[in-house]
Amino acid sequence: MEEWKEYKLGEICTKIGSGATPKGGKETYLGGETSLIRSQNVLDFAFSWDGLAYINDEQATKLNGVEVIKNDVLLNITGDSVARVCIVPDDALPARVNQHVSIVRGNKSKVRNEYILYFLQFKKQHLLSLAQGGATRNALTKGMIEDFTILLPQLEEQDQIVSILKSLDDKIEVNRRINENLEQQAQALFKSWFVDFEPFKDGEFVESELGMIPKGWRVESLSSIADYINGLAMQKYRPEEGEKGLPVLKIKELGQGSVDDNSELCSPSLIGDKYIIKDGDIIFSWSGTLMVKVWCGGKCGLNQHLFVVVPKNYSKWYVYQWTKYHLDNFIRIAKDKAVTMGHIKRGELDKAKVVIPDNDNLARIDALMEPIFNQIISNELESRRLATLRDTLLPKLMSGEIKVNDMQLSENQ
Known about the structure:
single chain; alpha+beta; 22 strands; 21% strand; globular
């Protein structure tokens, strides 16, 4: 490894620095053309579009010193999401970052930005230990980042290492985009059938508490089509001595779609099967950040403030779509009632209404929706397997334990 050399990031980067929030805070966001990237948008290896803010030209000009350019590395530097890192996607540009996100931009003659990304992931635990050294909240300072030591091979080998790891990430991104499209298809079909009743517009309709619906259909409550089972206060169910714990599924894990090294652990023997979540389960966060997702992040213990949604003689897609249909209203209710952390009560599940078709039509739409739902889950699980392979290769490649030439020779044999 004599050709590998150690540098400080400050020696090989042309830009290391965070931004600011436009004066006046988020209330001043005017929905302009420039992305304002915050910590919630920076996940490990991935950029999240959820909650991405936009600012106008005037605000962007005031933040000109923190302009994000193509292929910049984005590093979260404060709070619970500290040390998460990704590459800015092209379609998020033009962009600025706020004070919780740092740009790390390598000198192209010395280092590839993607190599910095993977090395920071490789050394994430070290970054976390640095961030946790402060007196108050977790934080990485500019000086810490500049002094961070990185091990570099020659550019050609950097490119080869990046190519292997990025091929896995690219496939994960393809799956994400496919699933985004499938989700849009499913929502369009659901709206056509159950909101606009387009396939039945020439048929007979009858009056209901939701207005006119196809004859033979009925209206029930959301709680009548599924059980909404609340999780446990998992701090009371820690693993017993010698027991292998299960990761705890909290709002954070649900939002990022996976558990991580910082996820708490619980005892599977103490909580019982009722509160053990498996791939394909529908999870509804009813407190704090309200969301509905199909979990594909592996076996977990369900924390309080989350429902696992168990269908009653209906397909999962049907229950998932109806719960998601009412989500915006639930969010409004939680916001109106919020004192500290907004939430909804079980009574809202009874008030939320669903339209149930006759058995023949339910079977017809089921034949269309079930394959879409299952394909989304299949793609998510494939992405998790690819991420596991990437995470296995990452430390071996970034430390030089495995040489790229050795991998290529193995593949050819």
